[in-house]
Write a structure and sequence with these properties.
The chain contains 20 helices and twelve strands. Strands 1-2-3 form a three-stranded parallel β-sheet. A three-stranded antiparallel β-sheet has the order 4-5-8. The protein has a two-stranded antiparallel sheet with strand order 6-7. 48% of the residues lie in helices and 12% in strands. Among the domains are: 40 residues; 90 residues, Orthogonal Bundle (Arc Repressor Mutant, subunit A), CATH 1.10.10.350. α16 crosses α18 and α16 packs antiparallel against α20. The structure holds glutamic acid.
Length: 449
Amino acid sequence: MRVRFAPSPTGALHIGGARAALYNHLAARGAARRGEPSQFVLRIEDTDRERSTPENVEQILDALQWLGLDWDEGPISQVSHEARHREVVEDLLTRGLAYRTTATADDVRAYKDEHGADKGFRGTDQGEGAIRLHVPEGELVVHDLIRGDTTFQNVHMDDPVIARADGSPLYNLAVAVDDIDAEITHVIHGEDHLSNTPKQLLVYSALGKEPPLFAHLPLLHGPDGKKLSKRHGAASVQELRDAGYLPEAVINYLALLGWGDSDDETILSREELEERFDVGKVTKHPARFDETKLRWLNGKYLRALSVDELTDRLEQHTGRTGLRGAVEISQEKISTFHDFWPLAGFFFDGPKTDDQKARDQWLDDDGRKTLAAARDALGVLDPFSLEAVEQTLRELPATLEVKPKQVFQPVRVALAGTTVSPGIFESAALLGKDETLRRIDAAIASPGT
Ligand code: GLU
């Protein structure tokens, strides 16, 4: 099996593109596991010279690497094959399988007016102009692993343009020639390419080549059933990365998105995915990309990491160091890397100053009285251990004849500046005695900031 991923570097790698890359990759690696020689080829379709930039190529390679989608051949620039494409076009002309014509879109319309709207345009060699392929009589069958066979009657297809008047090859010619030369056996890509496939098959047939098997992946929709776009949140791999998702969770989620009847909330390792993946089981209807489900899955992956591993990754993500203690007590409460700093940043940057509501509610006169009592009780602890802090704070409500939260919330707001934090005993113990007392004193002295 030889598959390829062939992105056009006109922007970032979108989630739909990443899913196509992943399905090709899983197909190839799955075949390899079953002992079948297989390769995953990376081709950069950079024929749009204006929109294809080296930065975009870099970004795509980077996103693939981040996802762990390694390639066996490439990246191959499609532009670098232009001489070969031109040679094929020349050859088709020489053999009379293609012709030059000056026919315009109007001429094609006029042809249909005369011969019938469902009749494909047929031209004659005029010795100049763009180059079209002669469509032979007969029919073409697209073997699609997801949709089954679709038959196209050649009579309805226009002679396709394969090169401009200056001989520069067009997209469908270039793709078919590259796939033939690379001996691609399976073309797995988005169904937005469906309309290109018959044109490419005409090139295969003109060149006397067996076409590959196809798999046209249904489009990705957002949770509202509309085509996935920025409106739905992250739309590119880079955005998912920036938002603090783990590549392994993204892979797991994308793999199960619209694949067979599996529940998209199942955790499967890369090995299991490679073993089980079957492109023929991809559903025919659009798949829904739902970031809340990805978050859920990401949380599962994140909690399964060891504290050391999670600390390592969070330190890389945030560029900060010394996070281990905070990571240890936050792990249960975060679903992405991005959740960490809003939850635990106060350990490092001081209590938050932007939650006025929490201060007004919990650092009022009663709250400050409670804090003073908490300060006295905590101030005598030695050692200031988690157990001692917990015991002290748990006993305080009964002593003061208040509800537990009337103690815990003022302490939390004093330490964190807000009501959302890791466990309050753990937080105090991590801050240590001096800092805990300092923050409580500051809250009593100036509750507003
Ligand atoms: N370059 C095309 C794209 O990025 C994909 C070509 C193909 O899969 O045949 O949409």
